[in-house]
Amino acid sequence: MTVIRHVAIALLAVLSVGGGATADPAAGVSGELPVSVAQAIGRLQAKPTFAHMSWGIQLIDLATGKVLIDQAANRSLLPASVMKTYSVATALDLYGADHRFRTPVYRLGNLKGDVLDGDLVLVASGDFSFGLREQPDGRLGFTSLPEVDHNTTYTGFPGGAYVKNSDPLAALDALAAQVKAAGIREITGDVLIDDRLFETYRGFLSGPIAPIWVNENVIDIMVTPTKPGEKPKVDWRPRSAAITVENDVTTVSGTAGPLEVTTQRAGVVRVSGKIASDGPLVLTISQIADPAAFARTVFIEALVRAGIKVAAPALGPARPLPDPGGYRDADRVAQYVSPPLSEFVKVILKVSYNRGADLMVCLAAVKAGSRDCGEGLAEVLKLLARHGVSSTGTYVFDGAGSSNNSRTTPSDLATFLKNITATSWGSAIHDGMAVLGVDGSQALNGAGTPAAAHVRIKDGDMVAGSAAGQLVALATTQTGYIEARSGRRLAYSLMVNNIPFLSLQDYSAARADVAAVVVAIQQGY
């Protein structure tokens, strides 16, 4: 989801109720529309809220390829986060669903007894989890609504949670243990982070994308209310000499607005604002400005925890990196191996992780032989062209769907999902989507309806608010797969643009009307 111009953060709670589709009575329908579906669409169209919307819907039978519903499906609309489907698919096509990120550590210099007379270098691989989300069963964990996953947090708001069963420093501690097991007890030189896989990219709207990730390159700050008038408790992770958090928050009676995090100076962030004494914990984040420098510090700290003496100071500048072609397999002293890429797809699609989706574009550029993340967009377009997506209906400006310039059509989305079912990696897209009424961004939507657990969804929302207080949902979109009541397997896309609303309750009601269309489709076919 993208919130523009700091619309009230309470919208996040509203966005957990609803789905996304509508139709136009003047548009055509292929085949006979089930009565229940026609009624659901009719109820939606009759509401004044939808009078000025732009819309589109397409539904395809996967077994026959027949288009069952085609209403304004070629209309090019603002897509929001459904664009993540395209970027994630590109990475899967180029790397394979079974690809694992391998992050090695090399020694540069001679090992004299247990003393490394030289440097230790960690070579970043683009592993955005890097141990953080890895669960005991080898899968990657994520947080489902009503709790909000830490890296989809936009600012401090009631709720939010650390990733369950997670340790931000797990990969670094594992690597440090391997370095020690390789016989190194002391390092006389420096500890370096080689982040040259691609140039850190700051052009996408979701924040800087770097090759090295520790706690997904954010500091999680958890604020716990106390008594009115007192400072709340503030905890953060990962803990390191590289970061200090100043507490400028006050506990108050009644309601309180979102918390604000600001950088005071290098290594010091301040969290300020008010938190309700009778409210829940508040999770907010601070993005790490220099991921490589931060990773160097916490890796040195991990080595020291492992009992390895390091001469280089944990803070301060590092030596220049060596020739990238100078690493030898014989000098590798540690390596961290991630779960398969298919697990990363689940995190990106189920919680709508913007920076994770943009990372997929950077990795596409790397596969094409470039260090410029922007060139990965060309790889996305190549994939789309091979799978029936129109070059005049779809425009890709980023991987996450955060750009107001991106466009796609319901027909392109539904056709793409149909066509990729024949690929070796298509099932990873299907399995990676949020399940209606079960998990991710769809955990609360459709719960208790007959369609629950039978619809796989990638949804998107882009909401804007003006200084005068006007609110509009620029995009409320869905694409995914439906297991119909009859057993038919369907691919669909439902897109609505420009829904004005006067209150959060109005928006919640509008999204509930939209959600009813998906339930009706699942039950009607």
Span from first to last CA?
A: 30 Å
CATH architecture of the largest domain: 3-Layer(bba) Sandwich
Q: Count the beta strands.
A: 20
Mean pLDDT reading: 91
CATH class of the largest domain: Alpha Beta
Count of spatially separate domains = 2
Coarse structural class: alpha+beta
Explain what this protein looks like in three dimensions.
The radius of gyration is 24 Å and the shape is globular. Helix 3 packs across helix 8 and helix 7 crosses helix 8 (376-386). Strand 18 and strand 19 (471-483) form a beta hairpin. The chain has helices spanning 11-14, 35-45, 84-95, 170-181, 291-305, 341-351, 354-367, 376-386, 410-419, 426-432, 504-524, and strands at 2-4, 54-61, 67-71, 100-112, 115-123, 157-158, 186-187, 191-194, 218-224, 233-237, 244-252, 260-265, 268-276, 282-287, 309-310, 332-340, 434-435, 455-465, 471-483, 489-501. The chain starts with a strand and ends with a helix. The strands form four sheets. Strands 1, 2, 3, 17, 18, 19 and 20 form a seven-stranded mixed sheet that branches. Strands 4, 5, 7, 8, 15 and 16 form a six-stranded mixed sheet that branches. It has a four-stranded antiparallel sheet with strand order 6-14-9-10, with no helix packed on it. 24% of the residues lie in helices and 26% in strands. The protein is an alpha+beta fold and 525 residues long. It has two domains: 1-77 and 409-418 and 434-525, no CATH class; 101-340, D-Ala-D-Ala carboxypeptidase C, peptidase S13 (D-tyrosyl-trna(Tyr) Deacylase, Chain: A, 3-Layer(bba) Sandwich), CATH 3.50.80. The chain has eleven helices and 20 strands.
